[in-house]
Structures
1.
Amino acid sequence: MSQSYNAALSLPPPFQLVTLREAGDAYAHAQSIAASDGAGTLVWARRFHMAEFALVLEPEETLATARRVVYAAGNALADALAIHAPPQQPIGFDWPGGLRVDGALVGGLRLAWPSDAAEDAVPDWLVLGCSVRMIVMRAGEPGFRPLLGGLDEQGFEELSPSVLIEGFSRYFLREMNEWNAEGFETVQKRWLQRAEDGTAVLLDEDRLAEALRIPAWLDPETGEPWL
């Protein structure tokens, strides 16, 4: 697997881009360099059918509360999609990280942290991973899998992985700035407006840790969203 530090995306500061070839694992690679490369490192696996990237973070909160960053990231991802969505196309979340468009699962978010990190201590790093299926490469007609799919089947034919990631980076900075200025409640309220089940489970920190450790939206055999 090769690695490049060439600027292939237009990212705002403080993001620093690392690109991998198509076969690379952005989520695993980001974890392997998190301690050395530090906060703002965004690892992008350049696949044409998937927007797949991972972001290194260095939180200032304890691990138990820092995991809530997945909700800020969900808001950012949804807003980055919404500006390219067909009119009235609903974008929603499965708790805590699944992403749905018009009810169909198209991707999700996950989170990693050091294996020796204590719940009541500030972790050295977090790695936020994101996978969004841009184009369905296999499986049958959408009608036979109405709850699973890709963005191409939802009217996003012109949206590229690079444009989606660039949009995410800008909206994510907005989310973090609002969190710092106004508190987590602002992030929480925005996320709940798109929650598919409508339940307020955000502050259940024990459940959140387990749900992020084994994401329900991720097919462990393919490493991609279920299809």
Note: The domain at 3-215 is CATH 3.30.930.10 (BirA Bifunctional Protein; domain 2).
2.
Amino acid sequence: MTRVVVADDQPVICAGFAALLDAQPDLEVVGTAADGRELVELARRTTPDLALVDVRMPHLDGIEATRVITAELATRVLVLTTFDLDSYVYEAIRAGASGFLLKDVTAERLVEGVRLVADGSMLLGPAVTRRLVDDFAARGAAPPDADLAPLSPREREVLGELARGRSNAEIAADLVVAPETVKSHVAEVLRKLGLRDRIQAVVWAYEHGLVRPGG
């Protein structure tokens, strides 16, 4: 059972999301919050597996709440917002969010997204991914350096494929290994680089020049 908290300052939306998720046999909503401060307190008290977080909330916005939660807890965060803006995308990911969806997604896609992020996957819509890569291109990236030293050649290869948005199954097919082997490599990459999930690995790879936008 995946334990979830929902945070949104609009009561009807918050209640709707909570009811939708709690109706799933594998999901349990353990609390809701109407603002960022309340969300942080709720997360500290309930230690959920995942927090579904709106960006624009009073007292403490969703991005700052995400930053606090991911720094203190193992809780994964899926950011859900009406506003499809570049700054939100980048800042949410930098704050530790593992996924970013717009509120106009279908109920089925939202439930699927919660399950994917809770299971350790990253979740970015295609438009979000394109803008994120463009953002790295505009900012420039540092050249590869000794930060890669802990990784084996195969782990570097897997990290590069992750950064291109490829799934474990796709990487396994390219490398002619079992998906379980790729999963093991991914776990080692995260452990050695001190990263919490795949989306942080993607950010790390671009920032350190392991892959280049469009490459």
Note: The mean pLDDT is 85.
3.
Amino acid sequence: MTPKAARLADTAPVLILALIAGAGSFTHIRDTAIEHGQTGWMAWAVAVCVDLTCVMAARERQRDRKNGRERNGWISWPTLVLTSGIVLSLAANLAQAEPTPWGWITAATPAGAFLVAVSMLERRASEPRPEPSSDLVPVPSAVPETTPPAVPDQNGPVAELLDYARRVAHEHQARHGKPITRDTLRARLGVSSQLASDLLRTLRDSPETA
């Protein structure tokens, strides 16, 4: 089985369970809202708010764990929101149940299954992803560049630094088809702007002399 097929086999049952359980819980919440005066689109809005609040709170709990913001010793705000949404969903489901033990159990099943599916998805989303092996990461081969000689910053360029600057300028001209600028020369040589200006002026005044 390919990794993609394995992920689909693991995730599909949980997603299907979440959809079916959410639909059942949604129906009970909508019917309860209608019985208590929230008719028309408002009944649907109440049901959507309750179910989506649970999903949103579960995602926020997972984000808090990832960012290290999960509190110890006290319930966090996303957990409180998730708990409140579950209580509302269970209450609506039980309100639609036949007043018998099995009636309450069967009516509460969609809300419980929805909670289980959301918690499973939350748990899987919080699993750390394996780090890529360093043996499989290609290391680009380093292309050594000619480094400028260590010459102290001074007012006038010396012959050795001038020769190196001329090679850099010729290489830039050949590669880009235009003369090198002061800032580019300064970055390549690692010298001050004033010294780069002196070098560039000397190269322009005597381009073929060392």
Note: The two ends are 69 Å apart (CA to CA).
